[in-house]
Design goal:
By secondary structure, this protein is of the alpha/beta class. The chain has helices at residues 2-6, 17-37, 44-56, 58-68, 93-101, 119-131, 148-162, 181-189, 256-272, 308-319, 335-346, 362-378, 410-414, 426-441, 453-466, and strands at 108-110, 112-116, 136-141, 166-172, 193-197, 217-220, 224-228, 250-254, 293-300, 323-327, 331-332, 350-356, 381-385, 393-396, 400-404, 408-409, 418-423, 444-445. The strands form three sheets. The chain has a nine-stranded mixed beta sheet with strand order 1-9-17-15-14-10-12-13-18, sandwiched between helices. Strands 2-8-7-6-3-4-5 form a seven-stranded mixed beta sheet, sandwiched between helices. A two-stranded parallel ribbon has the order 11-16. α7 (148-162) packs parallel to α8 and α12 crosses α15 (453-466). The longest helix is centred in the first third of the chain and has 21 residues, at 17-37.
Length: 469
């Protein structure tokens, strides 16, 4: 050790056993303090992974924890109890009560709700919405493609900005790495304000690089909201020479829901500028026609103390009486949600899950296999769609339907900023259920097969790491 000190160099392996042990102890103490003081509740597998990394590889594990370890930016508020009467809120009482105590925006009754199952129809609806904006356009996306669809969207935004409309674009710094720099310069030159969410190189006090903004929304004049699962790139809207457009869902809502979405965007916008994060809930009045269409924003992520979408799905699994109908591009649930869905299937609830036969993430396909075998053995119906299915929707009985950006995996449940919308109207629930059922008819039934030992080991490793990834 003397030679290293004399040469001005310091290496971890030059430490004595006592000094190394002290470093590991301090690293574990740091983990305990950071998670307990900051109320960073974690899944057991995630907690075990961090402790193991700090204990076995402390000189890499401790810096990685400091960079990526924070999962929540807000602390749980004082517990409060809400008693909901069936006549007070739309939808099932259990869902209304749960969402009320998690401080999500109140349900609203809106003028119109329209779903887009076709990519081209969705793009046309989006462009019409932008062209009709008079004062403000706020856009948030994970991906802005440097392709025909991305350029078409950018051109529409530039036209409105040149006509005096205030246009703001919030891009996730990781998801939009493929965005064209010339495209972004043109947007800024036209008067569009562009802001990056969580760049890789940023002040670590302002956030963690593994916490990505996966929300997709466009709000015009706080009157109309466009949202769903689609990013702004060719694969989500149009067929190309390389591949057909992915199957996906989006929707437009005209009414008070757009005002709440605008407030959510404003909070993300200020956070991306490093101005701090508001821990206050989106308590916006929910006016509207009492005979209108009922919907409710369910945002989730590090800016919420609770894992809202995950808690809603977990509760729904035990409340469901007839069916759970779900579609997602990826399926890597944690043990608690998987057990709840298996138990629902075993007690007679018809659990139907639709996934792509092969998604655009091969690791996710490997990670899902154990969960699919357990669901299959419990009596659930699993179907594999022949194309790339990117839609995210869950229908519970005939009383609740969810649609938005959140996948059925740990990253969406516990790490990403996500936006899901709950629909309570019979028309909207029926439309989503019928769409999924039509896709099921085009799909093949999943057949569970016992894997070889080497594949079983790889599946377990991918699933264990997938929670952190």
């Amino acid at each position: 050790m003397t030679d290293h000190v004399a040469s001005g160099l310091w290496w971890p392996w030059s430490l004595s056993v006592l000094a190394h042990g002290a470093f590991v102890f301090c690293g574990l103490l740091l983990y305990i303090l950071a998670t307990r003081i900051g109320h960073q509740r974690r899944h057991p597998s995630a907690a075990f992974a961090w402790v193991l990394a700090i204990a076995v590889l402390p000189y890499a594990g401790v810096p990685l924890f400091l960079l990526f370890g924070t999962r929540k930016f807000t602390r749980p508020q004082h517990q409060r109890h809400v008693r909901i009467q069936a006549s007070d809120q739309p939808g099932p009482v259990w869902a209304s009560s749960l969402l009320a105590v998690m401080d999500v925006p109140a349900p609203t009754r809106n003028v119109s709700i329209r779903f887009h199952e076709d990519g081209l129809a969705s793009q046309c609806a989006l462009l019409a919405l932008i062209d009709g904006a008079r004062h403000h356009i706020d856009l948030c996306t994970f991906i802005l493609g440097a392709d025909a669809s991305g350029n078409t969207l950018a051109a529409a935004l530039m036209r409105r900005a040149r006509n005096g409309v205030h246009v703001r674009v919030l891009l996730d710094a990781i998801g939009s790495l493929r965005a064209s720099r010339s495209q972004l310069r043109a947007l800024r030159d036209a008067g569009v304000t562009v802001r990056w969410f969580m760049p890789l190189l940023h002040n670590p006090l302002r956030g963690r690089s593994n916490l990505r903004n996966h929300r997709k929304l466009v709000v015009c004049d706080e009157e109309i909201l466009w949202s769903g699962g689609r990013n702004f790139a060719d694969e989500y809207f149009i067929d190309t020479d390389r591949q057909p457009a992915w199957d996906d869902l989006s929707f437009t809502v005209q009414g008070p829901l757009a005002q709440q979405a605008g407030a959510l965007f404003a909070r993300d916008w200020h956070s991306a500028a490093g101005r701090g994060r508001s821990a206050s809930p989106l308590l916006i009045p929910a006016p509207g026609d009492l005979n209108g269409m009922s919907a409710q924003l369910v945002p989730s992520g590090p800016d919420h103390a609770d894992d809202t979408v995950y808690a809603l799905l977990l509760t729904a699994a035990y409340q469901a009486q007839k069916r759970i109908l779900a579609v997602s591009p990826y399926f890597v649930p944690d043990d608690a949600l998987l057990a709840a869905w298996c138990m629902a299937a075993r007690r007679g609830v018809r659990v139907t899950l639709l996934l792509p036969a092969r998604s655009n993430h091969r690791l996710a396909d490997w990670a899902r296999e154990r969960a699919l075998r357990e669901l299959h053995d419990a009596g659930a119906h699993v179907y594999l769609y022949p194309g790339m299915m990117h839609a995210k929707a869950v229908i519970i009985d005939d009383t609740l339907a969810l649609c938005g950006s959140a996948n059925l995996d740990g990253r969406s449940f516990f790490l990403n900023f996500e936006l899901t919308t709950a629909f309570y109207g019979a028309v909207e629930i029926g439309w989503l259920a019928a769409w999924v059922e039509r896709k099921v008819l085009r799909s093949g039934r999943y057949v569970a097969r016992q894997p070889a030992w080497w594949r079983d080991v790889i599946e377990g490793m991918v699933r264990a790491l997938g929670f952190q990834l």
